[in-house]
Amino acid sequence: MANFPITIDFRNISSHNQIVDALSTAFDAVADDTVHFTINLNTYSMLYSDHLVLIGSTVNHLRSIGVIVTGNFQDFRVDSAQVKYASRVNFFEQIGFAYAENFQRQKASGRFTEIKRFDDDNALDIHKEIVSILLKDSINDDMMTVLEYCLWEVMDNTIRHSQSDGTIYNGSGYISCQYFPSKKQIRIIVADNGQGIHQALTTHPNSKYKLLNEAEALNQSVNKGVTNSTGMGFGLWATDTLIRENGGKLIIHSGNHSLEIDNNKNLENTSKWQGVYTYIRVNTDVAVTYDKIFDDDGQKNAFEELKEKLLGNLDDLW
Known about the structure:
This protein is α/β, with parallel strands linked by helices.
């Protein structure tokens, strides 16, 4: 039985990749091994729920495969803004840490979601909750419909493809969303600890991409029509296109590779993330119409049909 010490100090962290660097060795643990987390939540800037999701997802993954998870918080300041924020977005609840809140919770509606686990049973409800955050800022209607479509496709990919046993719609993941009015930005993350893009894309018996290596699979995952044959292959491509038009940022990390897209497209060798996480940052003051995403009538019609099927009348959200 092996021991894996993991140290995460948010005073030294400013990116998702740095968190994965800290977490990566934990993914080598097997049943009856011990992973001990030492976490310092103090920061010199801001604490983000999309960073905390990566930790919570990892802790729950390890426990699910029989790894013994222990931990402690370093320099834990009970009344600090960081600790209160972590509690408010349900980070402590997700990792099983008992923290007694001594503050009154303000409503999250229209501003953020707590860190939540999703699967096929509750994904649509969580998706609608996030759509209400998009509506809150009254961003361009066309852009909102494209973003909610892209978000659903990312969540659906986790539900459909994260399991490695050949089943679909049995996957699960973690998600958070927060709107930052002063920055005019929305940050969303969807994370799972499943089989990863390479295995999902190359092992299906009807896949056309069986010969791709991990880097090639990730790089091509955002191309139009790339699928393991169980979908249309538009979701990540539409998300990629939206981010480029909006000037935002997209990160897709799977296995030992991370694909970052903003004005450029950059694929890097990285520390290992077990499964896939997708981070989306959009600028709410930069409108993108869906005719820039779906460039022919067939794609537009398919988009409208899926939007109606999943979302119905947006007035129902209120």
